[in-house]
Amino acid sequence: MAILSPERTYIRPAAVAGSFYPADRFVLRERVQREIRSATTAVVTMATEGIVHPTIPKAIIVPHAGYTYSGSTAALAYALLERGRGEVTRAVIVGPTHRVAVRGVACCNASAFDTPLGAMTVDRDAEQYALDHAPAMIVNDDTHRQEHAVEVQLPFVRETLGNVEIVPLNAGDATPREVGDVLRALWGGPETVIIISSDLSHYYPHEKARHLDDQTIGRICECNLPINPDQACGAIPVNGLLDVCIEKGLHPVLLGRATSGDDNEVSVAGEPRVPIADTNEAVVGYASFAIWEAPHDGGADNAGSASARACATMAPMRTCATGSFSPGSDDENDTKDPPAVSSDEMPAIGAPSSAASHAQPAPHPHAIRTPVQAVRDALARQNAQRAQRPTGLAGLVKHTEEYAHLADDPETYASDPATNTTGMIPLDAGNDLLVVARNAIARELNRPPVGEPSNTTSKWLDRKAATFVTLTENERLRGCIGTLHARESLRDDVARHAVDAAFNDPRFAPVQNEEYPMLHIEVSVLSEPERIEGVHSRGDLLDRLHPYSDGLVLRYGPHLATYLPQVWEQLSDPRDFVTHLLLKAGLPGDFWDEGIVAERYSVITFSEPEK
What is the pTM of this model? Predict the structure, then answer.
């Protein structure tokens, strides 16, 4: 039995930073975030078409080439893993040995793996447990020193899951059962994800490579052992995962596939591949897969058939620089003014593809928390609401349906804020809040203002109120920051949060000058949160919620998260609404304790017209 040496610990330096991925931490972070944002768009589309379940997978298979070649393929799997931020605390990462061969599955004595984004701590207790319980587990420092298969995954892991502990392993000469036994020892519960690092075929002519890769993808989806090293360079760790899948009745689901000749354009599950530029070009193949564990799997047969549907055809997806969304993040984005938090709205999903609109696929067996039909219903409801919302003063303001009567009934609110007791805000003041928000962003970009607030609304803009400012681009979340409690005037609060949403939301790169005309701004003015009384159980809370009108805050010790009422458009079932909010707060989705404090608030929303 091997034992880790406490005297030989070291921090393993990054070996391929600057070659496989950027060495500059700012460039690297922006690159990974850009890939994840683009991939999330594709993942949501696949969810609406019943191909994937948009919750945390237990395991993924991802490529390990340079980000220029396989980054967008890997990002599809990490976009799903991102929903586990705050719940997942350990990532077991298993790759092949490209440089120093070993017999067995090797950990090393490193206490941390360094990356340009910071060092990631190794879970040495988990490694020692595997050494004690899996005969093929060994300790070998040499095989890890220059190996890239695990290292290239670390920036993606850190950006999607946060600074979790890692278990980095290199699988050499070992049988599927031997590698499977290592994975079984480390499998854990929802706190653990398994990441298998593998490319597919190497240096065949492009057309032949695709044919070979499609055969390999089919074998992986069917758990058809063994996969050979000429089919996938990470065949040994892949076979180990498939060994576990066979035992547990799980099936990998294909997310996307590509080659090094596809210019980082991945064909996502559901539609055909992109055209081949040069059929004779020697290429490397890539694919990404996700595996969901029971009870989300819904049975091996169903999972396999869904995976087979995904394998049949693919749709191309190209990475884009801006304008995507990042659901599931648990960042609390107003660090200057606690207890402010990000609204972290679920993204507004675009219209389904024409293929999806004609062929209504059966819901994927994984679709339990957020069924496909619920997503489609939310889409239809959202589009109908948008079509019905009237235009406010000066043609600029659009407001939520709940407050549509304000445009026609100005007597609903008093003209003087000092005597107003309804919490309503006149539309001309809302119009000026949008002007304040856009001007604040324009100033940061050295652009001219779009106008100035009118004198008649100054008394409204000087009122103290809490706000959130949400930025979207092409209907994708681009930033959202706000506060729950009134601390400054509406004018100052909106200006500050507009700047923070544009430039300081940690989930996104700062807004660039060329994006400014494409930004869509929405300002939400919040009522003061009020505690929901009589909540002693999860059921009590569900019974007391008012869908589409309640904003919800959940507090539990240091955990805090909120959803604006707009999120009901994507999470219409109160059970889903609460589950996702708990996950956002860094708690398990099924967690409940009487110590949880639930508060509700309402909003008045002012929004620029759709561009």
Answer: 0.54
Segments of the chain assigned to CATH 3.30.700.20: 390-526
- Transcribe 408-448 into DSSP letters: H-GGGS-SSTTT--S----HHHHHHHHHHHHHHHHHHTT--
According to CATH, the superfamily of the domain at 26-318 is LigB-like (3.40.830.10)
Closest CA to 171 of 206, 204, 196, 199: 196
User: Quick check: 36 and 78 in contact, CB under 8 A?
Assistant: yes
> Rounded distance, CA 413 to CA 422, Å?
7
Residues of the chain with CATH 3.40.830.10: 26-318
CA quadruple 477, 511, 471, 480: dihedral sign = positive
Q: Report residue 455 as tokens.
A: 């004198």
Which CA distances in Å does 377 have to 328, 370, 373, 453?
Answer: 20, 11, 6, 39
3-state secondary structure (DSSP) of residue 610: coil
Encode pLDDT of 319-344 as tens digits.
Answer: 322 222 222 333 334 333 333 333 33
State how far Cα 374 lies from the chain centre: 19
Burial code (b: 16+ CB inside 10 Å, e: under 16) for 359-381 equals eeeebbbbbbbbbbebbbebbee
Rounded CA separation 493/522 (Å): 14
For 176-223, the pLDDT digits (tens) are 999 999 999 999 999 999 999 999 999 999 999 999 999 999 999 999
- Alpha carbon 488 to its chain centroid, in Å, reads 32
Structure-block tokens of residue 365: 């067996």
Separation CA 311–CA 506 (nearest Å): 35
Which CATH code of 1.10.260.40, 3.30.700.20, 3.40.50.300, 3.30.70.20 fits the domain covering 390-526? 3.30.700.20
Q: Which residues contact 133 (CB under 8 A, 6 or more apart)?
A: 181, 185
- Tell me how long the chain is: 611
